[in-house]
Amino acid sequence: MATGTPTTGSFAALLHGLRTKAGLSQEELAHAAGVSVRALSYMERGRSRGPQRRTVQALAAALGLDEAGARELEHTASLGRPRRTPATQAPPPPAVPDTAARAGVPDLLPRAPRGFHGRAAELAALSRAAAGEAPVCLVIGPAGVGKTALVLHWAHHGRAGSPDGRLYVNLRGFGDTGEPASMEVLREFLLALGVPHDRIPETVNGAAALFRSLAAERRLLVVLDNARDSEQVRPLLPGGRHCATFVTSRHRLPGLIVTDTATPVAVDVLGPEDGTMLLAGVLGTERVHAEPAAARRIAELCGGLPLALRVAAARLAHRPSWSLDAMAAQLSDETRRLSLLDVEDTGVRAALRLTLQQLPPEVSSLFACFTTTSRQSTGAVTATTTATGPGGSTTTPRSTADRHEPAA
Prior knowledge:
408 residues; alpha/beta; 5-stranded parallel sheet; two-stranded antiparallel ribbon; 19 helices; 46% helix; 8% strand; disordered C terminus
């Protein structure tokens, strides 16, 4: 498509020169900025002399301009926009470089978890992982261990580290409601960053490229929760050096460690003391301190799983007349334990069922044999022994990290 000859000193000339200097074709720049090739051609030919500020900011981000360059491009574009009459003219907003929506910094995080307790070592590990350049932190652990709560607690207390916004998506890699398509997630991220609907590319590659370019000079926090495998994550990783990405998964995702130098942070079950404190956070310290031995026993019978502990606490909170010793006695009955640790659609049984659905048939059958055996012995909800698999290999039911990718 012909570009014409831009007028010297105009927005068209400046944009044309910047694109040429960056070594981009009109098609490449349009693709990265989320505009049509026709619209970009009109801008460079002077037929669109004063494009909207969001468009200019998207172009600045796609061109990789620094703060001064982005400000110059926006100022030049503003000279070609229609002027209001002096009576109604408002002062122009201050130019903000490579930002599509500064009026409201995007924040898609769910609310902070309530009653969070402990995890000092894991929180410190998250802080260390986030301190690097373009960090990707992989938070791994079994179902119900509190991976999401850990990341959200850290994110809400580390707000200063992401002044340009916080993005979140539940990838539902272990749910039964279907995973969101990559395009669906990217569209939500781009809209949060201020990209208009009609400027969002129609392909995953185009949308991912635009997301990376917009994130290149920002300090964003991106949380990709409940990821199934590395392939699901890669299109959603931001660009640049300043964004931090946290991925939670029940799998180890060694592919992400290899290709994106992700830092793994393992999340294990809570110890009896921290488990008891979690109960106190829900039930109150007086009720827990009145029966310390029973509270500790409940924590042990729940296997240190925060999910199981919260369900047990919810049952006790609903029945103030129940003693903790009575609850511990009921949980000691292994034939009823999983039923007691489910409320409505939340609980250990649901989490285990969804994990089981992700396993290959041969591992699933081994797990069925394992759970039958474990019911015959005294122990907690979270099993830690292993079952012998084909060829003498071992399979750990609570650690399904090798499900999709070979161990690194």
